[in-house]
Design brief:
This protein is mainly beta. The protein contains 3 helices and 9 strands. The structure holds flavin mononucleotide.
Length: 169
């Protein structure tokens, strides 16, 4: 099995966020996808250790911000390399509240989705949430961030919690 085959897969970069009992959590994910069009359904796969995964299990809903190429490494670092249990990740950011009452990041976001979980699939280390889209909106028309752009142009790294993580050769 050649692990480099996985590097040929393409993804975007997203901020997944949720809220439960007055607390907020959010993290970076590259695993957000549309899975059906009618009804419009999406999926995201999150590590069970992530505060965001644990909060979505309780809230049953999540918001998604589709990141643009202009997203700063500070923003990606805040959501992708820290835990919401230790940090208020939304503090000082330009955020909105969606139709399900969830916070979403507006900064450097091309569009956003509000998602209601309809199925949860246990994948061992990770959980895949399948959700119906309760609302969505275009926020900006700048080019979106791909996983390849994040690695090649921004020189970004991927932490162990990401499903696409691979040991450095
Ligand atoms: N974590 C996941 O569980 N699923 C992903 O798809 C995922 N993709 C990531 C892609 C990138 C480029 C980066 C930087 C991180 C990714 N992560 C992913 C890791 C989480 O964002 C990270 O573990 C975060 O600190 C979790 O925060 P939380 O504990 O507040 O939920």
């Amino acid at each position: 099995m050649d692990p480099k085959a996985f590097f040929k897969l393409s993804y975007g970069l997203y901020i997944i966020s949720t809220e439960n009992e007055g607390k907020q959590a959010g993290c970076i994910a590259n695993t957000f996808n549309q899975v059906t069009s009618s009804p419009a359904q999406v999926s995201v796969t999150l590590n069970k250790n992530n505060a965001t995964e644990q909060m979505i299990e309780k809230s049953g809903k999540f918001a998604v911000a589709v990141l643009e190429q202009s997203a700063t490494m500070e923003l990606i670092g805040r959501f992708g390399f820290h835990c919401s249990r230790d940090l208020d990740k939304f503090s000082g950011l330009d955020c909105g509240i969606d139709e399900q009452g969830l916070p979403f990041v507006k900064e450097h976001a091309a569009s956003r989705f509000s998602c209601k979980v309809v199925k949860t699939v246990d994948l061992g280390t990770h959980v895949m949430f399948i959700a119906e889209v309760a609302g969505c909106e275009v926020l900006d028309n700048e080019p979106v961030m791909t996983y390849e752009y994040y690695h090649q142009v921004k020189n970004g790294k991927t932490p162990k919690n990401a499903p696409s993580y691979q040991e450095e050769p």
